[in-house]
Amino acid sequence: MSSAEKAVYKLLANCSQVTALVAERISPELGEPKSVMPYITYNLISEERDHVLDGVSGMSKARMQLNCWSDSYISTVELKNAVVAEYVKEDNTGGIDCFSGSIDGLIIQCVHVNDIGDIFDYTEGTDKSKRYGKRIDIQLWYNL
What we know:
Elements: H1 4-13, H2 16-22, E1 26-28, E2 39-52, E3 55-70, H3 73-84, E4 101-103, E5 106-122, E6 129-143
Parallel strand pairs: 1-2
Antiparallel strand pairs: 2-3, 3-6, 4-5, 5-6
């Protein structure tokens, strides 16, 4: 059985617009501040199984956070734009927003980008940023 985390990784890794900027630098949880930039980190915020009177409906909703990191604000915005671009099913291009399909046996009904915001990592004792970041909150609806 596949997981939401594995599906999001594969979705990002198969997005040519994203990999043109980060290559294979996509990882769970926290990236090291001295990592080669730009890169993407992701983590599961919550996972909710849908229930009906008879038990589990077979659907689940995962809320995840993707973080785009770079050494400049403009580069971070470019990476965020590549990630949140609308997926185009006809030619398998674009970003992750509105993706639906199957990844490693996990049937994804839809990926929705819900919220985007800035995050920063400051050098201790200064107001200088070590790296700039964009947080992307998504919901992933899928069949269990």
